[in-house]
Amino acid sequence: MEQQLQGLKAEALEKIAAAANVKQLNEVRVAYLGKKGPITDLLKGMGKLPAEERPKMGALVNVVREEVTTELESRMAILEEQATREKLQKETIDITLPGRPVNVGNAHPLTRVVEEIEDLFLSMGYEIAEGPEVEKDYYNFEALNLPKGHPARDMQDSFYITDDVLLRTHTSPVQARTMIEKKGQPFKIICPGKVYRRDSDDATHSHQFTQIEGLVVGEDIRMSDLKGTLSLFAKKMFGDDREIRLRPSFFPFTEPSVEMDISCFKCGGEGCNVCKKTGWIEILGAGMVHPNVLEMAGYDSKRLTGFAFGMGPERIAMLKYGVEDIRHFYTNDTRFLQQFLRTEL
Ligand code: PHE
């Protein structure tokens, strides 16, 4: 029996040494040390031995079992480590491989123009106001001195939702809304936003576009304040040597009303294709707030006066960046938009 035991031990140790991986080694464990293995069988067979031999044999079997177990454990440690190493090697990342490029987006050119203008007016103490795009006829027209049936309404044909609700045709309704909110107090605001007109789309017209409204109401606000503000704006947006020129115009909500031109930033006034050989470029409409507009919003037009202006960021962006078709801003052609990615505007 002792011989049998030594033979089993040698066999087990040989198989342990030969096991190439954790799985094979586990098979060896089950085969030799398991409940149905030969070593367990030997222990079970001890009953047949003469009583005086049993303790010696029992001890021997246990020693062999210990030895096999120890050997198995140390081999197991080696194989496990080897398995981990192989796994790690398989999973290594080659950090020298070039990465996948990430597309970095950029602000839309119109957003840039609007933000630039916002920054300028914020720096002069203006607040930014907002109003609804779906607007009441009252704010879009009536409160701006354009009663129902006024001929000037024809200049701004709109999309009507009901007889009294429409998509706003300009940002001027925010003038009336803000005055009502400010309850007779002085203030300075600009209001950027989308506006809508029933127009056929072409290179210079769009049924939806953006505007920025400006409104200052206070004591002793004069035409010269408007002129100074617009002059500063023109220089900031189009270069320090810009001159401005005010031409008489008409808006029902301002009196007097003007159109502002800037001296051509391309030719400096000589006459070129940008200014259509006139030396001047039309930029925006403006004027002194009509007393009726102030009164309708609860302001005492004898005590407070104001100026207002309205401009189109599309037009400004087209001039500034040489964009020839307004539709480029809305068609989401990334080739157009990406041109504004790397250029320092
Ligand atoms: N709301 C006018 C327009 O859209 C522009 C404007 C605003 C004119 C404020 C004067 C004062 O044409």
Folded structure, characterized:
- This protein has 345 residues and is an alpha+beta fold.
- 41% of the residues lie in helices and 19% in strands.
- The protein has a seven-stranded mixed beta sheet with strand order 1-4-5-9-8-7-6, sandwiched between helices. A two-stranded antiparallel ribbon has the order 2-3.
- A hairpin with a 2-residue loop joins strand 6 (244-251) and strand 7 (254-263).
- Helix 1 (2-18) packs antiparallel against helix 2, helix 1 packs parallel to helix 4 (54-91) and helix 2 runs antiparallel to helix 4 (54-91).
- Residues 170, 172, 213, 251, 254, 285-287, 308-310 line the site of phenylalanine.
Overall pLDDT metric: 92
Return the string of H and E elements. HHHHHEEHEHEEHEEEHEHHH
Q: What form results from the Cα inertia axes?
A: rod-shaped
Strand order of the largest sheet: 1-4-5-9-8-7-6
Would you count the extended β strands for me? Answer: 9
- Strand content bin: 15-25%
Question: Measured on Cα atoms, how large is the radius of gyration?
Answer: 44 Å
Cα distance spanning the termini: 96 Å
Bound molecules: phenylalanine
Unreliable stretches covering 5 or more consecutive residues: none
